[in-house]
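Forum: Protein Structure Q&A
Topic: Joint prediction for protein chains with partners

I've read a bunch of threads here and the consensus seems to be that you should model interacting components together rather than docking separate models afterwards. I'd like to see that in practice. Below is the full input, 257 residues plus whatever partners are listed. Could one of the regulars post the assembled result?
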Amino acid sequence: MKVITIPCSFDNYAYLIICEETGEAAVVDPSEFYPVYRELEKYKVPLTAVYCTHHHADHIGGLEELVDEFDGLTVCGFEEEAERIPGLNSLLTEKSRVSIGEIGGRVLFTPGHTSGSVCYIFNNHLFTGDTLFGAGCGRIFEGTPGEMHDSLNVKIKMLPLETKIYFGHEYTAQNLKFAQFIEPDNMAIKERLDAIAGKQGTALITPPTTLQLECATNPFLRCKEEGVSKTVAEKCGVDQLDVLSVFSALREMKDNF
Ligand SMILES: [Zn+2]
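Posted by a regular:
Agreed with the consensus. Here's the joint model:
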């Protein structure tokens, strides 16, 4: 299995997944047509499927042109997003098994950013769209903080720590600054910031990350850590907060950071 990261638009990522056994390829979140098409030409692989994490325009911007270009393309997305993703012809549920050539995968239903957001897991590679970012998470547009909390801290955190994570936007530097604001003494956050210092534009491509690194540096996965919960409670002017309140307050603070 080969994964090609394709920067699109301003700060989006599409991902090309190639089965090295059969040469078949699929794309996750085709934000734009040409950047994806160029990679397909470069690797000379036939596109057989598109996997949409959610319906937002910046994640499906290239979809219609791909459908026009590649006959018989399978377009997958969660059943709840069916009306909102044009060309969707494979409606997935959480029980669905998905595949790219010989690579088997499954669907994690992770509502919060949208009501039908999903992540895809192929082998130990997780594609998170706008649910989990490097050192951050997506805004809660359609779901509740409780849903987003569980998507991240129950469903995603259950995966093995070595899981590689491919996310939908390059927000890592800004997210790490917020993480450091919450946990100024966290050395893993400092190291991660140092590693990308001075890089920007095409020099700064931070996916994939790992679940292990996210658990060490991403405040939205660290609500139970004393360093996070105490700081958030302090900033809220209270003695202590339950985990979900810490998560909600963090999301609100990040929205205004
Ligand atoms: Zn989105």
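Residues 54, 56, 113, 130 surround zinc ion (CB under 6 Å).
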